[in-house]
Design a protein that fits this description.
The chain is 40% helix and 20% strand. By secondary structure, it is α/β, with parallel strands linked by helices. The chain folds into two domains: 120 residues, Enolase-like, N-terminal domain (Enolase-like, domain 1), CATH 3.30.390; 236 residues, Alpha-Beta Barrel (TIM Barrel), CATH 3.20.20.120. The strands form two sheets. Strands 4, 6, 7, 8, 9, 10, 11, 12 and 13 form a nine-stranded mixed beta sheet that branches. The protein has a four-stranded antiparallel beta sheet with strand order 3-2-1-5, sandwiched between helices. β10, α10 and β11 form a beta-alpha-beta unit. It is globular and about 60 Å long. Bound molecules: calcium ion.
């Protein structure tokens, strides 16, 4: 079996209602879907995180000419060859995100060719379903933010979620008021995590962390910029809240720093950005060796959800014991037609859990009508 063609689908959709966080406001959603076609007629799907115009051009103009004619079962070799060919220009960022999208499509193809789900090729599943937490609780252009957040949090509980993550990073006073509003709304029995999207320096993050410590926070995500490893260490040393980060980091080489310095308690590579399934499996092994929990960052279409579900199925519990700490899956609840419309059978949590897809490859069917409806070209 040989790769005969690689297509990219750059997609965009305007949002009905914009939403904001500590960095900017979202007015539209976008996605870049990779389609790898073989001479045997099989099609594999992947997704790249980040600016779709850039990742799409990288796959189409730089990677495609080097992979057409190759055997998709050489996925690990293809990864190393492409990384090495372009490492002078991009050890992080869109080059690696584009490589991730291509790599995921090759794993989908391998699974389809053999008639087995991707998680079996990755070493087998510890679980057939995984608990999900709701990512949401962004700003909306409405009055009375604490009341709006409390209402949304109650909706997540009603939908069956037993854990959720809210945005912070708006300054000490607002963060404490918003976190209190959400904790008061959901009560003590629901897990609550916070995410500052690297809005702070270390001393501000420590002050905010101390202010929200009384509200039983599951983890404090991206307190400081991703480049500031020493800042992560200072925040982690100062707070009792577990510290999470890694969605802006790439490849085993990038995660080597974060892990070997024990800068985080929880590492969050994005499979569609950090290097695809080939690389994230290696990063997960490194996290295990350093005693750091691995919980993927997930943000994208149904293709991204499926790739991350196959990977999380293969992540061992944080402790192998009678009462193991199981991984938990990030489920974005904000408006995103690519999550809800791109797959013929969308991946939707039931009672706060997601099933690992069981079909061959990623176990998904892409709706070509939805693909063309939102494609920019
Ligand atoms: Ca995040």
């Amino acid at each position: 079996m040989k790769i005969s063609d690689v297509k990219v689908h750059v997609m965009q959709a305007e949002l009905k209602e914009p939403f904001g966080f500590s960095q900017w406001w979202f007015h539209k959603r976008s996605a870049m879907i990779v389609e790898v076609i073989t001479d045997e007629g099989l099609v594999g799907w992947g997704e790249a995180y980040g600016p779709p115009e850039a990742t799409g051009a990288i796959v189409e103009k730089l990677y495609k000419p080097l992979v057409v004619g190759k055997d998709p079962f050489q996925a690990g070799v293809i990864w190393e060859e492409l990384y090495n060919r372009f490492r002078d220009y991009g050890q992080k960022g869109v080059m690696i995100a584009a490589l991730s999208g291509l790599d995921i499509a090759l794993w989908d193809l391998m699974g389809k060719a053999l008639g087995v789900p991707v998680y079996r090729l990755l070493g087998g599943a510890f679980r057939n379903e995984v608990s999900a937490y709701a990512t949401g609780l962004y700003l909306k252009q409405r009055d009375n933010v604490p009341k709006e957040l409390a209402h949304e949090a109650e909706c997540h509980v009603k939908a069956g979620f037993k854990a959720m993550k809210m945005k912070i990073g708006y300054g000490y006073e607002r963060d404490v008021v918003y976190v209190k509003a959400v904790r008061d709304a959901i009560g003590p029995g629901v897990e609550l995590m916070v995410d500052a999207n690297h809005a702070y320096d270390a001393s501000s993050a420590i002050r905010v962390g101390r202010g929200i410590e009384p509200f039983e926070i599951g983890w404090f995500e991206e307190p400081v910029p991703p480049e500031d490893i020493q800042g992560y260490i200072e925040v982690k040393d100062a707070l009792s809240i577990p510290i999470a980060g890694g969605e802006c980091e790439y490849t085993r080489f990038g995660f080597r720093e974060l892990l070997s310095k024990r800068a985080v308690d929880i590492v969050q590579p994005d499979t569609c950005s950090a290097g695809g399934l080939s690389e994230c499996k290696k990063i997960a092994a490194m996290a295990s060796a350093w005693g750091v929990r691995y919980l993927p960052h997930v943000w994208g279409s149904g293709v991204a959800l499926a790739a991350n579900l196959h990977l999380i199925a293969t992540i061992p519990p944080a402790s192998m014991s009678a009462n193991p700490i199981e991984p938990i899956f990030e489920y974005d609840t904000t408006e995103n037609p690519f999550r809800t419309e791109l797959l013929l059978e969308p991946i939707i949590p039931q009672n706060g859990s997601l099933k690992i897809p069981q079909g061959p490859g990623l176990g998904i069917d892409v709706d070509r009508k939805a693909l063309s409806r939102y494609s920019c070209k």
